[in-house]
Amino acid sequence: MKTSPPLQSQGSGSFTGKHIVSLNRLSGLFFVLAGLLLYFVIIPAETETVDYGWLRPQTIPNACAMAMTTLGALHALIPTGSISVKLREILKVTFFTAFTLLSLWLMETFGFLLIAPLFAGALMLLVGERRIGWLAGGAIVFPVAIWLAVVPLLERSLP
């Protein structure tokens, strides 16, 4: 059985390998597992069961989970293209993931209306947005609109 060589640093912090297709397959398998986890565990636990209406609360999330699983499987079975991952990109993704997880924890602790505008504004500043109109819309208007749509209109709770 042939094995792929490990990823090698090719200077300037990028990673490549002779059989880089295996990274494509690995990313496809990740989305297969994520889709299955959503479909069988997360969606049933987080949506309520109702016996009325033609569009039940789990219909759209289940369709998205099935699409994620199917497309992940196709990507794993028929990988195309090449991958070049730079260390800087990995560090950026890690930082934004940690930032998002911290913000979710803060929302759970202090509430959506307090943390969502701060998170949105900080995120927009981190990605380089400096226009006042966009910052105000993203940090004030959108979080308030989301809260108004979810809490009073849909009568659902936000963290």
Q: How many separate structural domains?
A: 2
**Strand and helix order:** EEHHEHHH
Got a strand count? 3
Q: What's the N-to-C terminus distance?
A: 50 Å
Beta-strand content bin: under 5%
Give the strand order, joined by hyphens, for the main sheet: 1-2-3
Contiguous uncertain segments of 5+ residues: 1-12
- Tell me the overall shape: flat
Task: Describe the fold and architecture.
By secondary structure, the chain is mainly alpha-helical. The chain folds into two domains: 1-83, no CATH class; 87-159, no CATH class. The protein has helices at 21-46, 59-77, 87-110, 112-126, 132-153, and strands spanning 8-9, 14-16, 85-86. A hairpin with a 4-residue loop joins strand 1 and strand 2. Helix 1 runs antiparallel to helix 2 (59-77) and helix 4 (112-126) runs antiparallel to helix 5 (132-153). The longest helix has 26 residues, at 21-46.
Give the tags.
single chain, 159 residues, mainly alpha, 2 domains, three-stranded antiparallel beta sheet, 5 helices, 4% strand, flat, disordered N terminus
